[in-house]
C-alpha cells in the first residue's frame, strides 16, 4: 500500500520537475517530501488495516496452510469456515479500486506531462522523456501484476504466486537499478564495462586460428 502511494507522489514530483522546473526546489521542499512520505505511510496503514479487520474475526477451523509465499488476503479467505463472498467483494473494492484507480491516475498524469512538453524543443523533450522513463518502467512492473491479482472476484490461481513476487520483491529490487540508469556516471561505467567485455572477446578471437573463426 505504501508503495502505491509513494509512486503517486513520485509522479507529482516528475510533473513539477518537467513542467515547472524553475519552481521545483520551492514546491518540492523537504517539508513537502516529508508530507508525501507521511501520507503514503498513513494511506498504506489504513488500506491494510481495513483488510486486517475483515480477516481477523473470521472463524478458522480447517487447515492452517495456504498455497502462497505470504499471508495474502485471498488465499487466507479460503481457510475460513464460513461464506466469505461479501468479504471478498469488500477486498475487491478495497485493493482492486486502489490499484486500478491509482494506475489510471498515473497514466493520465503522464499523458498530461507528454501533452505539456509537445511544444518544447527536441532536446528538452528527450530530457523530459528520460526523466519519466524510469518511473514509468517501475509503475508498469509494479501495477500490471498487482492489477492482475486483485482486480477479479475472490479466486486464486497458481500464477498468483509468481505475480506476487513481482510487486513484493522483483520490482522493489529493480528500482535502484532502474533509477540509477539515468545517472550519467552509471551510464559511463556500464559502457566502459561493456567495452572491456567486447575487448576481451576480440582478444580471444585473435588467439584462435582464422580457420576456426566461423565455428567460434
TrEMBL record:
Keyword list, A-Z: Cell membrane, Disulfide bond, G-protein coupled receptor, Membrane, Receptor, Transducer, Transmembrane, Transmembrane helix
Pfam family, one: 7tm_4
Signal sequence region: none
GO cellular component: plasma membrane
Membrane disposition: Multi-pass membrane protein
GO molecular function terms noted in the UniProt entry: G protein-coupled receptor activity; olfactory receptor activity
Subcellular location: Cell membrane
Residues covered by the G-protein coupled receptors family 1 profile domain: 1-179
Transmembrane annotation, as ranges: 34-61, 98-117, 129-151, 163-181
Coiled-coil annotated spans: none
Family, as annotated: Belongs to the G-protein coupled receptor 1 family.
UniProt name for this protein: Olfactory receptor 4P4-like
Designated gene of the protein: LOC102831481
Amino acid at each position: 500500500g505504501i508503495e502505491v502511494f509513494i509512486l503517486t507522489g513520485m509522479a507529482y514530483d516528475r510533473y513539477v520537475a518537467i513542467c515547472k522546473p524553475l519552481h521545483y526546489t520551492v514546491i518540492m521542499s523537504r517539508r513537502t517530501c516529508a508530507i508525501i512520505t507521511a501520507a503514503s505511510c498513513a494511506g498504506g496503514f489504513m488500506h491494510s488495516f481495513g483488510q486486517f479487520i475483515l480477516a481477523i474475526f473470521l472463524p478458522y477451523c480447517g487447515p492452517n496452510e495456504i498455497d502462497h509465499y505470504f499471508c495474502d488476503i485471498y488465499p487466507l479467505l479460503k481457510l475460513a469456515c464460513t461464506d466469505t463472498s461479501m468479504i471478498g467483494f469488500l477486498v475487491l473494492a478495497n485493493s482492486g479500486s486502489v490499484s486500478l484507480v491509482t494506475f489510471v491516475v498515473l497514466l493520465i498524469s503522464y499523458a498530461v506531462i507528454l501533452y505539456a512538453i509537445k511544444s518544447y524543443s527536441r532536446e528538452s523533450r528527450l530530457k523530459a522523456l528520460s526523466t519519466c522513463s524510469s518511473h514509468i518502467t517501475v509503475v508498469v512492473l509494479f501495477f500490471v501484476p498487482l492489477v492482475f491479482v486483485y482486480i477479479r472476484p475472490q479466486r486464486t490461481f497458481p500464477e498468483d504466486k509468481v505475480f506476487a513476487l513481482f510487486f513484493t520483491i522483483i520490482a522493489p529490487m529493480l528500482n535502484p537499478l532502474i533509477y540509477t540508469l539515468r545517472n550519467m556516471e552509471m551510464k559511463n561505467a556500464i559502457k566502459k564495462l561493456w567495452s572491456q567485455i567486447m575487448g576481451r572477446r576480440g582478444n580471444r578471437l585473435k588467439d584462435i586460428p582464422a580457420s576456426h573463426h566461423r565455428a567460434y
